[in-house]
Amino acid sequence: MSAPPVKSLARKERHLHPPVLRIMHWTNAVAIFIMIGSGWKIYDDDVIFGWLHFPDFLTIGKWAQHGLQWHFFGMWIFVLNGFAYLAYGIATGRFRRKLFPISARDILATVGDTLRFRLGHDDLTHYNAVQKILYLGVILIGILIVISGLALWKPVQFSELASLFGSFQNIRLVHFLCMSAIVGFLLVHIALALLVPKSLVAMITGGPFVAGAPDAAGAPAKIKATP
Amino acid sequence: MSLRTPTPSVFRPKRPIDQSVLSQSRGLLDGINRRGVLRGAISLGALTLLTGCDVTEEEPVQKVLRAVSSWNDGVQATLFRPNHLAPTFSAAQVVKPPRFNAHFDVEDVKPVDGTSWKLELAGRIGDRRPWTAQQLYGLPEQEIIIRHVCVEGWDYVGQWSGPNLRNFFQRIGADLTAKYVYFHCADDYTESIDMETALHPQTILATRYANDIITDPFGYPLRLRTSTKLGYKNAKWIRAIEVTNTFTETFWSKQGFNWFAGI
Questions:
Q1: CATH number reported for the structural domain that contains residue B207 in this entry
Q2: How far is CA B15 from the centre of its chain?
Q3: Cβ of A156 and B84 within 8 Å?
Q4: Is the CB of A135 inside 8 Å of chain B's CB atoms?
Q5: What does the pLDDT look like over B218-255, one tens digit per residue?
Q6: Most buried of the four, A66, A104, A191, B73, by CB within 10 Å?
Q7: What domain range is B210 assigned to?
Q8: Minimal Cβ distance to B52: which of A3, A57, A172
Q9: Interatomic CA distance for residues A60 and A50, integer angstroms
Q10: Interface predicted TM-score (ipTM)
Q11: Would residue B61 count as lying in a domain?
Q12: A169 — contact with chain B (CB < 8 Å)?
């Protein structure tokens, strides 16, 4: 016997995006949609910037209390799904394989390609350096928006956490800036998904088959079983 | 390295599965198709995207959202730390006068006549004799300089003093094991808090702001100040306090705001 039977059985072809990942992605999409729309409604009740007021048709909930209801409903979906996603990404090694390493040279090369409109999208299984930074960045922002949200919700019960931000209005500002960063990310993310439709289709159907069990713990990336 | 063909599972049935049930239920099976399920799911998702046509106030939607809000009341009660003190500030940081906010404009405040006013007591309280303002002023005072956080998002530091609510409850023989404390106010406002919050060391019946008797717009002669709740739970112009185990919706919870409203 040349290989342990269990391992050889696992070496079958799998989707680039396994079903559980696709479910988490679209669950997160719904949660983010609820959180941003209801958050804008809450923001409008006492704006941080006098020049910025979100029009009613962009917000979720008729009045402030409904915005709050949606926000404190959506938070459960966002946080629980987010925890599941982080646990999955770490446990299966997906983060390590897809988002690392990020080298300075790759970043420069990708930025150069982008500026010359030569960025390749043929290979969905591989992220370029800019994608790696954006995905990693939005994950970190997602963690910070939850932390600042907790401090906003419970500045007394979690006063130790809230004090790290300096003042209550600073917590609001951090929460707002995290939202702005996520909105900025979404604009790029959605625009590129529409420009490269197969990436959007891949997040629905699972995308191309890749060799091996891509999201099994410790499975090396892109190693095909050779005869 | 060569790949071994998978061995047939020992669980694989020896005989093929009887397919007759499929043909018998053909009509039913045709009804359930992947497209139908997908279409249903997509329509449901699209519904939430139509913010122009707001589903928030529809009865079934409100039912779900309010159920989650009640669930969140329980979560907040669990997170509540009975002896954890809110941050306090120095007298120099106090905003004077405090910020006005009510369900009506400041011009519409109907002042309470402090000479005829009495604090009524109701419910699970041993000694329910009413209190005059002068009697309340005679009680030991506690001062707290705490942050007021409004559900709208603004905050300010205020300096409040008056009898500690726990001490007051012990003095009047209130049932400290009861669940809720209701504050009935002169402006037909009713808010309630959980007993744990009522007994928190930073919960007082405020009669003074920055050492002076509280003025009309801010709740003269008596208002609640607790460091662990959003602004709207701090009832102003209190005329009666009721200790009870019965929950009834309050001024803001009726309108869909969270009841516990802890911070």
A1: 3.90.420.10
A2: 62
A3: yes
A4: no
A5: 999 999 999 999 999 999 999 999 999 999 999 999 99
A6: A66
A7: 72-244
A8: A57
A9: 21
A10: 0.84
A11: no
A12: yes
Give a yes or no: residue B257 inside a domain: no
B30 and B95 assigned to the same domain = no
* Encoded tokens for A64: 């402030």
How confident is the model over A72-129, as pLDDT tens digits?
999 999 999 999 999 999 999 999 998 888 888 888 888 887 777 776 666 788 888 8
The helix (H) or strand (E) run that includes residue B53 is none
Report how far residue A86's alpha carbon sits from residue A99's, in angstroms, rounded to the nearest whole number: 13
Amino acid at B257: F
DSSP A213: -
Q: What is the pTM of this model?
A: 0.83
Same domain, B43 and B125: no
Shortest CA gap B3–chain A (Å) = 6
Would you state the pLDDT for residue B27? 63
A156 and chain B: CB distance < 8 Å anywhere? yes
The answer to whether residue B43 sits within a structural domain is yes
Bridge-based pairing state of the strands B238-244 and B118-123? parallel
> Looking at the structure, do residues B210 and B128 belong to the same domain, yes or no?
yes
Residue type for position A215:
D
Do B98 and B44 lie in one domain? The reply is no
B217 min Cα distance to partner chain A (Å): 21
**A61 near B CB under 8 A:** yes
Residue listed under structure tokens 């002042």: B111
CB contacts < 8 A, A to B, total 112
Q: What is the pLDDT of residues B124-177, one digit of tens each?
A: 999 999 999 999 999 999 999 999 999 999 999 999 999 999 999 999 999 999
Q: Are residues B77 and B30 both part of a single domain?
A: no
The total number of structural domains in chain B stands at: 2
